[in-house]
Amino acid sequence: MSNRRRSRRPPRPGAAPADRGAPGGRVGGAAGLGRDFRRFWGGALSSNLADGTMLTALPMAAATLTDDPLQVSGLAIARFLPWLLFGLLAGVVVDRADRVRLMAAANTVRCCALALLAVLVATGQATVWGLYAVMFAAMLCEVFYDLSGRAALPDVVPAGTLDRANGRLEGGKLVAEQFAGASVAGLLFAVAAALPLALNAGAYLVGALVLLGLPAAVRRPAGPGRAARAGAGGGLRSVAADLGVGLGAVFGRRGLRTVALLLALVNAAMMAQSAVLVLLVQDHFGVPEALYGLFLSSAAAGGVLGAASADGLVRRLGRFATCALAFAALGALSASFALSPGAVTGGLAWCALAFAAAVVNVVTAGIWQLVVPGALLGRALSCIRTAGASAAPLGAALGGLLGRVDLRLPSLAAGSAIVLGTALAAPALRLLSRSADAAEREATAALDGLPPGG
């Protein structure tokens, strides 16, 4: 059996060998994701565990320093601000740099920041502003880490397995971040406030070390744009010019622009629901405060199931049908959640909603990775993510305003907006799905030595 790498593009010169996958060139098939992906996923799981611990431990630490709700809520601002300020610039850096080293460097910086905070907490020197600084620094590193990882993934896994790989990443993130990380943080914090922060630092460091073992073939973006710049004496274009190319790649192409805007709408709609979720669950559904966390865990369970099921759904229904149905279900389930008569039905609706959201995340991630050239992928993803991050505060504010009228209104409005947006974006979604399918077939055919579509 040949050992050429089955990536979404033909292997570049010097590419590391990998298993070809299923016999007969069947896309996806029973092919394994390979040793490189296992290493990549291991680094991601370690980082996800650290993220979950940090996102639980920092608010708990803030509560020990102040009882002012506004000061505690400042952590949420520090968490999302890096995407708004540096998301687009990060995409340019990701498309220029060694993506694996960038991920390792981001984790190393996060390790140092959390280790320093652990020392400050242990010695009683921590302040709320110090927590803000650490949250901001850690999430700024997350911007670079996440974009680099998503952009590098197509070169890590065999052709035809992107949906499965994205599902593994999404499911692993939910388990490590929302189940393991949050639980461990609470237990360790009860022993000593500095312990979960020390665990943060160690987990980020492990994630960095694991990633450094990936081969050179998956590290840098490939494509004619990079080769042309290198051949011109090594001078890179200005950041503004590179950023303009990335913006044009997303918003200058009708299909990509429409679906990117749909995702921004969905993000705003989901934030509108989340803004008043605790009040709706406790006041409308009657869930006691002690069981609120258990209610939320239904979303994590649904998300894990959705991430695990996405690849199988794509293979049975097709990429377009799976994505369109998941978007539509997301809208319908948002309305169903608001209209649920009690905590049990509400929890089931919230679980199903998370299932649909995970499927959307997995399938759309695969579409971007297939239709956007590798040398532009970092910038394209940064544009999409930044648009979503910009829409989130607007959605949260609208959710709060609607919640003043009726706590069910944010979910009803969100569901209606998602269903309408999906209907309007369906032609563009179909076009992109077909392009992704064609790119996947072409990559597989090229590696099998067949003509495209053969």
From TrEMBL:
List the keywords (alphabetical).
Answer: Cell membrane, Membrane, Transmembrane, Transmembrane helix
Q: Where are the transmembrane segments?
A: 40-62, 74-95, 201-218, 259-278, 290-308, 320-341, 347-371, 383-403, 409-432
Protein topology in the membrane:
Multi-pass membrane protein
One Pfam family from the record: MFS_1
Give the location in the cell. Cell membrane
Q: Which PANTHER family does the protein's record reference?
A: INTEGRAL MEMBRANE EFFLUX PROTEIN-RELATED, MAJOR FACILITATOR SUPERFAMILY ASSOCIATED DOMAIN-CONTAINING PROTEIN
- Protein name, please? MFS transporter
State the species of origin.
Streptomonospora wellingtoniae
